[in-house]
Amino acid sequence: MYIDAHARAQVGAGEPDLQVLRMKAAAAPVSAEFERRTILKVSWRLLPLVIVSYLIAYIDRTNIAFAALTMNEDVGLSSFVYGLGAGIFFIGYALFEVPSNIVLERVGARRWIARIMFSWGIVSGMMALTTGPASFLVLRFLLGVAEAGFFPGIIYYLSGWFPAAYRARVISALFIAVPASNAIASVISGAILEMDGILGLHGWQWVFILEAMPAVLLAFVVLRHMTDRPGEAAWLSAEERAWLEGTLRAERAQIERHAGALTLWQALTDRRVLALSAIYLFSVTASYGINFFLPQIIKQLGHSNFVTGALTAIPYTVGVVGLLLWGQSSDRRNERRWHLIVALALSAGGFAALALAGASYWALVAMSVVAVGIYGSRPSFWPMPSMFLTGAAAATGIALINSLGNIGGYIGPFIVGWLRQSSGGFDIALYFLAACASLSAIVTYLTTRSFATRK
Protein backbone atom coordinates (compact mmCIF):
# COMPACT_ATOMS: atom_id res chain seq x y z
CA MET A 1 0.00 0.00 0.00
CA TYR A 2 1.02 3.66 -0.20
CA ILE A 3 2.61 5.44 2.76
CA ASP A 4 0.12 5.67 5.59
CA ALA A 5 -2.27 8.54 4.95
CA HIS A 6 -2.63 9.07 8.69
CA ALA A 7 0.70 10.91 8.56
CA ARG A 8 -1.10 13.78 6.95
CA ALA A 9 -3.80 13.87 9.57
CA GLN A 10 -1.23 14.00 12.35
CA VAL A 11 0.20 17.31 11.16
CA GLY A 12 -2.92 19.03 9.87
CA ALA A 13 -3.67 20.41 6.46
CA GLY A 14 -1.12 21.26 3.80
CA GLU A 15 2.04 19.31 2.90
CA PRO A 16 2.74 16.50 5.41
CA ASP A 17 5.55 16.96 7.90
CA LEU A 18 8.54 15.22 6.32
CA GLN A 19 9.86 13.81 9.59
CA VAL A 20 6.53 12.09 10.32
CA LEU A 21 6.46 10.68 6.79
CA ARG A 22 10.02 9.38 7.16
CA MET A 23 9.00 7.45 10.27
CA LYS A 24 5.99 6.01 8.47
CA ALA A 25 8.06 5.20 5.38
CA ALA A 26 10.55 3.21 7.40
CA ALA A 27 7.79 1.02 8.85
CA ALA A 28 5.12 0.82 6.16
CA PRO A 29 5.47 -0.97 2.82
CA VAL A 30 4.74 0.82 -0.40
CA SER A 31 3.25 -0.51 -3.59
CA ALA A 32 5.55 -1.78 -6.32
CA GLU A 33 4.12 0.91 -8.60
CA PHE A 34 4.91 3.68 -6.12
CA GLU A 35 8.50 2.43 -5.76
CA ARG A 36 8.93 2.02 -9.51
CA ARG A 37 7.56 5.48 -10.19
CA THR A 38 9.78 7.12 -7.57
CA ILE A 39 12.98 5.43 -8.76
CA LEU A 40 12.09 6.23 -12.37
CA LYS A 41 11.56 9.88 -11.49
CA VAL A 42 14.90 10.04 -9.68
CA SER A 43 16.64 8.24 -12.56
CA TRP A 44 15.34 10.59 -15.24
CA ARG A 45 16.20 13.62 -13.15
CA LEU A 46 19.75 12.67 -12.15
CA LEU A 47 21.23 10.07 -14.49
CA PRO A 48 21.24 11.95 -17.82
CA LEU A 49 23.21 14.83 -16.28
CA VAL A 50 25.59 12.51 -14.42
CA ILE A 51 26.16 10.25 -17.43
CA VAL A 52 26.87 13.15 -19.80
CA SER A 53 29.25 14.69 -17.24
CA TYR A 54 31.18 11.43 -16.88
CA LEU A 55 31.22 10.96 -20.64
CA ILE A 56 32.89 14.35 -21.03
CA ALA A 57 35.34 13.57 -18.22
CA TYR A 58 36.39 10.36 -19.91
CA ILE A 59 36.80 12.04 -23.30
CA ASP A 60 39.01 14.76 -21.81
CA ARG A 61 41.27 12.33 -19.97
CA THR A 62 41.71 9.93 -22.92
CA ASN A 63 41.60 12.13 -26.02
CA ILE A 64 45.39 12.16 -26.12
CA ALA A 65 45.06 8.65 -27.57
CA PHE A 66 43.93 10.25 -30.84
CA ALA A 67 45.89 13.46 -30.53
CA ALA A 68 48.98 11.25 -30.32
CA LEU A 69 48.51 10.09 -33.92
CA THR A 70 49.99 13.43 -35.04
CA MET A 71 51.02 15.22 -31.82
CA ASN A 72 53.80 12.82 -30.88
CA GLU A 73 55.74 13.53 -34.05
CA ASP A 74 54.96 17.28 -34.00
CA VAL A 75 56.32 17.89 -30.49
CA GLY A 76 58.85 15.04 -30.28
CA LEU A 77 57.24 12.52 -27.90
CA SER A 78 58.64 8.98 -27.92
CA SER A 79 56.40 6.01 -27.09
CA PHE A 80 58.01 5.91 -23.65
CA VAL A 81 57.37 9.60 -22.89
CA TYR A 82 53.86 9.40 -24.31
CA GLY A 83 53.05 6.39 -22.08
CA LEU A 84 54.55 8.21 -19.10
CA GLY A 85 52.43 11.28 -19.81
CA ALA A 86 49.28 9.27 -20.39
CA GLY A 87 49.75 7.68 -17.00
CA ILE A 88 51.01 10.64 -14.96
CA PHE A 89 47.48 12.03 -15.05
CA PHE A 90 46.60 9.36 -12.49
CA ILE A 91 49.36 10.38 -10.09
CA GLY A 92 47.82 13.82 -9.70
CA TYR A 93 44.40 12.21 -9.67
CA ALA A 94 45.29 9.71 -6.93
CA LEU A 95 46.98 12.27 -4.65
CA PHE A 96 43.89 14.45 -4.36
CA GLU A 97 41.03 11.91 -4.52
CA VAL A 98 40.50 11.37 -0.79
CA PRO A 99 40.76 15.07 0.20
CA SER A 100 38.35 15.93 -2.62
CA ASN A 101 35.70 13.45 -1.48
CA ILE A 102 36.01 14.62 2.13
CA VAL A 103 35.28 18.17 0.95
CA LEU A 104 32.39 16.96 -1.22
CA GLU A 105 30.81 15.14 1.73
CA ARG A 106 30.91 18.40 3.72
CA VAL A 107 29.95 21.04 1.16
CA GLY A 108 27.65 18.97 -1.07
CA ALA A 109 28.02 17.34 -4.48
CA ARG A 110 26.39 20.13 -6.50
CA ARG A 111 28.95 22.84 -5.82
CA TRP A 112 31.99 20.59 -5.62
CA ILE A 113 31.35 18.61 -8.80
CA ALA A 114 30.66 21.84 -10.70
CA ARG A 115 34.01 23.18 -9.45
CA ILE A 116 35.80 20.02 -10.55
CA MET A 117 34.29 20.15 -14.04
CA PHE A 118 35.16 23.79 -14.59
CA SER A 119 38.76 23.19 -13.45
CA TRP A 120 39.44 20.17 -15.62
CA GLY A 121 37.82 21.82 -18.65
CA ILE A 122 40.26 24.73 -18.43
CA VAL A 123 43.32 22.49 -18.00
CA SER A 124 42.16 20.11 -20.76
CA GLY A 125 41.97 23.01 -23.20
CA MET A 126 45.46 24.09 -22.14
CA MET A 127 46.79 20.75 -23.44
CA ALA A 128 46.78 22.50 -26.83
CA LEU A 129 49.76 24.51 -25.53
CA THR A 130 51.99 21.40 -25.41
CA THR A 131 55.36 22.15 -27.00
CA GLY A 132 57.45 19.19 -25.88
CA PRO A 133 57.91 16.43 -23.29
CA ALA A 134 58.15 18.76 -20.26
CA SER A 135 54.97 20.73 -20.95
CA PHE A 136 53.14 17.53 -21.90
CA LEU A 137 53.98 15.87 -18.58
CA VAL A 138 53.17 18.96 -16.48
CA LEU A 139 49.79 19.55 -18.14
CA ARG A 140 48.78 15.89 -17.88
CA PHE A 141 49.63 15.90 -14.16
CA LEU A 142 47.63 19.10 -13.60
CA LEU A 143 44.67 17.61 -15.49
CA GLY A 144 44.68 14.73 -13.00
CA VAL A 145 44.76 17.16 -10.08
CA ALA A 146 41.86 19.15 -11.56
CA GLU A 147 39.65 16.09 -12.14
CA ALA A 148 40.49 14.37 -8.84
CA GLY A 149 37.42 13.35 -6.88
CA PHE A 150 34.93 13.47 -9.73
CA PHE A 151 34.27 9.76 -10.19
CA PRO A 152 34.30 8.67 -6.50
CA GLY A 153 32.19 11.74 -5.76
CA ILE A 154 29.62 10.57 -8.31
CA ILE A 155 29.61 7.00 -6.91
CA TYR A 156 29.11 8.35 -3.38
CA TYR A 157 26.43 10.74 -4.61
CA LEU A 158 24.44 7.99 -6.34
CA SER A 159 24.62 5.76 -3.25
CA GLY A 160 22.76 8.53 -1.44
CA TRP A 161 19.90 8.44 -3.95
CA PHE A 162 19.39 4.80 -4.99
CA PRO A 163 18.62 1.84 -2.70
CA ALA A 164 20.97 -1.15 -2.89
CA ALA A 165 18.66 -3.20 -5.13
CA TYR A 166 19.11 -0.69 -7.96
CA ARG A 167 22.80 0.19 -7.71
CA ALA A 168 24.32 -2.23 -10.22
CA ARG A 169 21.88 -1.05 -12.88
CA VAL A 170 22.50 2.58 -11.98
CA ILE A 171 26.26 2.07 -12.17
CA SER A 172 25.75 0.28 -15.49
CA ALA A 173 23.96 3.37 -16.75
CA LEU A 174 26.79 5.56 -15.45
CA PHE A 175 29.46 3.41 -17.07
CA ILE A 176 27.72 3.58 -20.43
CA ALA A 177 29.59 6.87 -20.56
CA VAL A 178 32.94 5.03 -20.72
CA PRO A 179 32.53 2.92 -23.89
CA ALA A 180 30.23 5.60 -25.30
CA SER A 181 32.89 8.27 -24.76
CA ASN A 182 35.52 6.07 -26.37
CA ALA A 183 33.24 5.40 -29.33
CA ILE A 184 32.19 9.05 -29.69
CA ALA A 185 35.69 10.38 -29.19
CA SER A 186 37.06 7.89 -31.71
CA VAL A 187 34.81 9.23 -34.44
CA ILE A 188 34.86 12.92 -33.46
CA SER A 189 38.58 13.09 -32.70
CA GLY A 190 39.41 11.40 -35.99
CA ALA A 191 37.34 14.04 -37.78
CA ILE A 192 38.79 16.95 -35.78
CA LEU A 193 42.33 15.85 -36.69
CA GLU A 194 41.39 16.68 -40.28
CA MET A 195 41.13 20.37 -39.22
CA ASP A 196 44.92 20.56 -39.36
CA GLY A 197 46.06 24.06 -40.42
CA ILE A 198 42.81 25.93 -39.64
CA LEU A 199 43.68 29.25 -37.94
CA GLY A 200 47.28 28.10 -37.92
CA LEU A 201 46.64 25.30 -35.41
CA HIS A 202 47.44 21.62 -35.71
CA GLY A 203 44.59 19.11 -35.78
CA TRP A 204 45.61 17.69 -32.39
CA GLN A 205 45.40 21.19 -30.87
CA TRP A 206 41.82 21.48 -32.11
CA VAL A 207 41.07 18.12 -30.46
CA PHE A 208 42.01 19.52 -27.05
CA ILE A 209 40.33 22.91 -27.52
CA LEU A 210 36.99 21.72 -28.89
CA GLU A 211 36.65 18.73 -26.57
CA ALA A 212 37.38 20.85 -23.46
CA MET A 213 34.54 23.30 -24.03
CA PRO A 214 31.63 21.04 -22.97
CA ALA A 215 33.11 20.49 -19.48
CA VAL A 216 33.29 24.24 -18.79
CA LEU A 217 29.75 24.85 -20.03
CA LEU A 218 28.24 21.84 -18.27
CA ALA A 219 29.72 22.93 -14.93
CA PHE A 220 27.13 25.72 -14.82
CA VAL A 221 24.34 23.27 -15.69
CA VAL A 222 25.40 21.03 -12.77
CA LEU A 223 25.47 24.02 -10.44
CA ARG A 224 21.92 24.90 -11.38
CA HIS A 225 20.20 21.52 -11.71
CA MET A 226 21.93 18.98 -9.44
CA THR A 227 20.20 18.28 -6.09
CA ASP A 228 22.43 17.30 -3.17
CA ARG A 229 20.11 14.87 -1.33
CA PRO A 230 16.57 13.48 -1.48
CA GLY A 231 15.32 15.71 1.33
CA GLU A 232 16.03 18.78 -0.84
CA ALA A 233 14.30 17.43 -3.96
CA ALA A 234 11.37 19.78 -4.56
CA TRP A 235 10.70 17.80 -7.75
CA LEU A 236 9.68 14.77 -5.63
CA SER A 237 6.44 14.67 -3.65
CA ALA A 238 6.68 14.68 0.15
CA GLU A 239 5.68 10.99 0.18
CA GLU A 240 8.36 10.11 -2.36
CA ARG A 241 11.03 12.01 -0.45
CA ALA A 242 9.99 10.35 2.79
CA TRP A 243 10.00 6.84 1.34
CA LEU A 244 13.37 7.30 -0.35
CA GLU A 245 15.07 8.78 2.71
CA GLY A 246 13.46 6.20 5.01
CA THR A 247 14.59 3.31 2.80
CA LEU A 248 18.17 4.58 2.52
CA ARG A 249 18.34 5.25 6.26
CA ALA A 250 17.08 1.72 7.03
CA GLU A 251 19.73 0.24 4.70
CA ARG A 252 22.48 2.24 6.38
CA ALA A 253 21.30 1.08 9.81
CA GLN A 254 21.28 -2.55 8.64
CA ILE A 255 24.83 -2.25 7.27
CA GLU A 256 26.04 -0.74 10.54
CA ARG A 257 24.40 -3.53 12.56
CA HIS A 258 26.02 -6.25 10.44
CA ALA A 259 29.37 -4.68 9.55
CA GLY A 260 29.81 -1.99 12.17
CA ALA A 261 29.96 1.77 11.68
CA LEU A 262 33.49 2.67 10.60
CA THR A 263 35.00 6.08 11.18
CA LEU A 264 36.57 8.06 8.38
CA TRP A 265 40.06 6.98 9.47
CA GLN A 266 39.13 3.33 10.01
CA ALA A 267 37.92 3.17 6.41
CA LEU A 268 41.42 4.05 5.20
CA THR A 269 42.93 0.89 6.71
CA ASP A 270 40.01 -1.53 6.50
CA ARG A 271 41.11 -4.81 4.89
CA ARG A 272 38.00 -4.93 2.68
CA VAL A 273 38.74 -1.47 1.32
CA LEU A 274 42.36 -2.46 0.64
CA ALA A 275 41.25 -5.68 -1.06
CA LEU A 276 38.91 -3.78 -3.37
CA SER A 277 41.72 -1.29 -4.06
CA ALA A 278 44.00 -4.14 -5.19
CA ILE A 279 41.27 -5.61 -7.42
CA TYR A 280 40.65 -2.24 -9.01
CA LEU A 281 44.37 -1.53 -9.39
CA PHE A 282 44.95 -4.61 -11.56
CA SER A 283 41.74 -4.04 -13.53
CA VAL A 284 42.45 -0.36 -14.23
CA THR A 285 46.03 -1.19 -15.25
CA ALA A 286 44.60 -3.49 -17.91
CA SER A 287 41.88 -1.05 -18.97
CA TYR A 288 43.98 2.08 -19.41
CA GLY A 289 46.93 0.08 -20.72
CA ILE A 290 44.85 -0.62 -23.83
CA ASN A 291 42.77 2.58 -24.02
CA PHE A 292 45.67 4.90 -24.72
CA PHE A 293 47.21 2.63 -27.37
CA LEU A 294 44.23 1.05 -29.14
CA PRO A 295 44.09 3.71 -31.91
CA GLN A 296 47.78 3.03 -32.63
CA ILE A 297 47.08 -0.73 -32.76
CA ILE A 298 44.15 -0.21 -35.15
CA LYS A 299 46.21 2.25 -37.21
CA GLN A 300 48.47 -0.69 -38.13
CA LEU A 301 45.67 -1.84 -40.47
CA GLY A 302 46.73 1.03 -42.75
CA HIS A 303 43.67 3.29 -42.79
CA SER A 304 43.28 7.07 -42.54
CA ASN A 305 42.83 8.79 -39.17
CA PHE A 306 39.08 9.07 -39.74
CA VAL A 307 38.61 5.38 -40.64
CA THR A 308 40.89 4.39 -37.76
CA GLY A 309 38.58 6.35 -35.46
CA ALA A 310 35.48 4.64 -36.81
CA LEU A 311 37.03 1.17 -36.44
CA THR A 312 38.24 1.94 -32.91
CA ALA A 313 34.66 2.78 -31.94
CA ILE A 314 33.45 -0.77 -32.69
CA PRO A 315 34.82 -2.57 -29.58
CA TYR A 316 33.58 0.16 -27.27
CA THR A 317 30.11 -0.02 -28.78
CA VAL A 318 30.06 -3.79 -28.21
CA GLY A 319 31.25 -3.15 -24.64
CA VAL A 320 27.99 -1.35 -23.87
CA VAL A 321 26.17 -4.67 -24.33
CA GLY A 322 28.31 -6.39 -21.71
CA LEU A 323 27.91 -3.44 -19.38
CA LEU A 324 24.11 -3.53 -19.47
CA LEU A 325 23.81 -7.32 -19.32
CA TRP A 326 26.15 -7.63 -16.33
CA GLY A 327 24.43 -4.86 -14.40
CA GLN A 328 20.95 -6.30 -14.88
CA SER A 329 22.07 -9.83 -14.08
CA SER A 330 23.96 -8.76 -10.95
CA ASP A 331 20.93 -6.94 -9.52
CA ARG A 332 18.45 -9.63 -10.55
CA ARG A 333 20.49 -12.42 -8.93
CA ASN A 334 21.57 -10.37 -5.89
CA GLU A 335 25.15 -11.41 -6.68
CA ARG A 336 28.34 -9.38 -7.17
CA ARG A 337 31.39 -11.60 -6.61
CA TRP A 338 31.06 -14.19 -9.38
CA HIS A 339 29.79 -11.63 -11.88
CA LEU A 340 33.01 -9.71 -11.26
CA ILE A 341 35.25 -12.79 -11.49
CA VAL A 342 33.74 -13.99 -14.78
CA ALA A 343 33.93 -10.52 -16.37
CA LEU A 344 37.60 -10.10 -15.43
CA ALA A 345 38.48 -13.59 -16.68
CA LEU A 346 36.75 -12.81 -19.97
CA SER A 347 38.82 -9.66 -20.42
CA ALA A 348 42.03 -11.59 -19.69
CA GLY A 349 41.19 -14.05 -22.47
CA GLY A 350 40.42 -11.17 -24.81
CA PHE A 351 43.83 -9.58 -24.22
CA ALA A 352 45.61 -12.85 -25.00
CA ALA A 353 43.55 -13.24 -28.18
CA LEU A 354 44.38 -9.65 -29.15
CA ALA A 355 48.09 -10.43 -28.90
CA LEU A 356 47.63 -13.48 -31.13
CA ALA A 357 45.50 -11.59 -33.67
CA GLY A 358 48.26 -9.14 -34.57
CA ALA A 359 47.56 -6.52 -37.25
CA SER A 360 44.38 -8.13 -38.56
CA TYR A 361 40.66 -7.51 -38.36
CA TRP A 362 40.45 -10.32 -35.80
CA ALA A 363 41.96 -7.74 -33.44
CA LEU A 364 38.61 -5.93 -33.48
CA VAL A 365 36.85 -9.13 -32.37
CA ALA A 366 39.37 -9.74 -29.59
CA MET A 367 39.17 -6.15 -28.42
CA SER A 368 35.39 -6.41 -28.34
CA VAL A 369 35.74 -9.35 -25.94
CA VAL A 370 38.09 -7.26 -23.80
CA ALA A 371 35.59 -4.40 -23.75
CA VAL A 372 32.69 -6.65 -22.71
CA GLY A 373 34.78 -8.05 -19.85
CA ILE A 374 36.28 -4.79 -18.61
CA TYR A 375 33.07 -2.78 -18.74
CA GLY A 376 30.98 -5.69 -17.53
CA SER A 377 33.09 -5.86 -14.36
CA ARG A 378 32.25 -2.33 -13.23
CA PRO A 379 28.55 -2.63 -12.26
CA SER A 380 29.28 -5.64 -10.04
CA PHE A 381 32.38 -4.05 -8.50
CA TRP A 382 31.22 -0.59 -7.48
CA PRO A 383 28.19 -1.62 -5.38
CA MET A 384 30.58 -3.58 -3.12
CA PRO A 385 31.93 -0.66 -1.01
CA SER A 386 28.42 0.41 0.00
CA MET A 387 27.77 -3.13 1.29
CA PHE A 388 29.89 -2.34 4.36
CA LEU A 389 30.55 1.43 4.33
CA THR A 390 28.20 4.28 5.25
CA GLY A 391 28.39 8.06 5.69
CA ALA A 392 31.78 9.76 5.77
CA ALA A 393 33.48 6.35 5.82
CA ALA A 394 31.80 5.56 2.50
CA ALA A 395 32.99 8.84 0.98
CA THR A 396 36.53 8.17 2.17
CA GLY A 397 36.61 4.46 1.36
CA ILE A 398 35.22 4.88 -2.15
CA ALA A 399 37.74 7.65 -2.81
CA LEU A 400 40.63 5.53 -1.53
CA ILE A 401 39.60 2.53 -3.66
CA ASN A 402 39.41 4.72 -6.74
CA SER A 403 42.60 6.56 -5.82
CA LEU A 404 44.76 3.48 -5.28
CA GLY A 405 43.09 1.66 -8.15
CA ASN A 406 43.70 4.47 -10.57
CA ILE A 407 47.43 4.24 -9.99
CA GLY A 408 46.93 1.48 -12.54
CA GLY A 409 46.10 4.26 -14.98
CA TYR A 410 49.73 5.31 -14.58
CA ILE A 411 51.23 1.81 -14.52
CA GLY A 412 49.36 0.49 -17.56
CA PRO A 413 50.26 3.12 -20.17
CA PHE A 414 53.79 3.47 -18.76
CA ILE A 415 54.60 -0.23 -19.04
CA VAL A 416 52.82 -0.68 -22.37
CA GLY A 417 54.77 2.28 -23.81
CA TRP A 418 58.05 0.91 -22.46
CA LEU A 419 57.40 -2.65 -23.68
CA ARG A 420 56.34 -1.44 -27.10
CA GLN A 421 59.45 0.73 -27.49
CA SER A 422 61.82 -1.97 -26.24
CA SER A 423 60.27 -4.88 -28.15
CA GLY A 424 59.13 -3.07 -31.30
CA GLY A 425 55.55 -4.32 -31.04
CA PHE A 426 52.51 -4.67 -28.81
CA ASP A 427 52.48 -8.46 -28.26
CA ILE A 428 54.41 -8.61 -24.97
CA ALA A 429 52.51 -5.60 -23.65
CA LEU A 430 49.16 -7.27 -24.38
CA TYR A 431 50.20 -10.43 -22.50
CA PHE A 432 51.14 -8.18 -19.58
CA LEU A 433 47.62 -6.69 -19.64
CA ALA A 434 46.13 -10.20 -19.76
CA ALA A 435 48.13 -11.07 -16.65
CA CYS A 436 46.82 -7.96 -14.87
CA ALA A 437 43.20 -8.86 -15.64
CA SER A 438 43.84 -12.43 -14.45
CA LEU A 439 45.35 -11.18 -11.18
CA SER A 440 42.31 -8.99 -10.61
CA ALA A 441 40.03 -12.04 -10.96
CA ILE A 442 42.24 -14.12 -8.64
CA VAL A 443 42.31 -11.44 -5.92
CA THR A 444 38.53 -11.13 -6.19
CA TYR A 445 38.13 -14.86 -5.65
CA LEU A 446 40.49 -14.93 -2.67
CA THR A 447 39.39 -11.83 -0.77
CA THR A 448 35.71 -10.99 -1.32
CA ARG A 449 33.89 -14.10 -0.09
CA SER A 450 33.28 -12.62 3.38
CA PHE A 451 31.57 -9.36 2.34
CA ALA A 452 30.33 -9.58 -1.26
CA THR A 453 26.99 -11.15 -0.37
CA ARG A 454 24.03 -8.87 0.01
CA LYS A 455 22.23 -9.17 3.36
Secondary-structure map with pairings?
Blueprint: H1 6-11, H2 18-27, H3 32-62, H4 64-75, H5 79-107, H6 109-126, H7 133-147, H8 150-159, H9 167-175, H10 177-192, H11 203-225, H12 238-259, H13 264-269, H14 271-291, H15 294-299, H16 305-332, H17 337-357, H18 362-381, H19 391-405, H20 408-423, H21 427-447
Helix pairs in contact: 2-12, 3-6, 3-9, 3-10, 3-11, 4-11, 5-6, 5-7, 5-19, 5-20, 6-7, 6-8, 6-11, 8-19, 9-16, 9-18, 10-16, 14-19, 14-20, 14-21, 16-18, 17-18, 17-21, 20-21
Keywords:
mainly alpha; Growth Hormone, Chain: A; 455 residues; globular; single chain; 78% helix; disordered N terminus; 21 helices
Walk me through this protein's architecture.
This protein has 455 residues and is mainly alpha-helical. The chain has a single domain, classed as MFS general substrate transporter like domains (Growth Hormone, Chain: A, Up-down Bundle), CATH 1.20.1250. Helix content is 78%, strand content 0%. It has 21 helices and no strands. It has helices spanning 6-11, 18-27, 32-62, 64-75, 79-107, 109-126, 133-147, 150-159, 167-175, 177-192, 203-225, 238-259, 264-269, 271-291, 294-299, 305-332, 337-357, 362-381, 391-405, 408-423, 427-447. α17 runs antiparallel to α21. The longest helix is centred in the first third of the chain and has 31 residues, at 32-62.
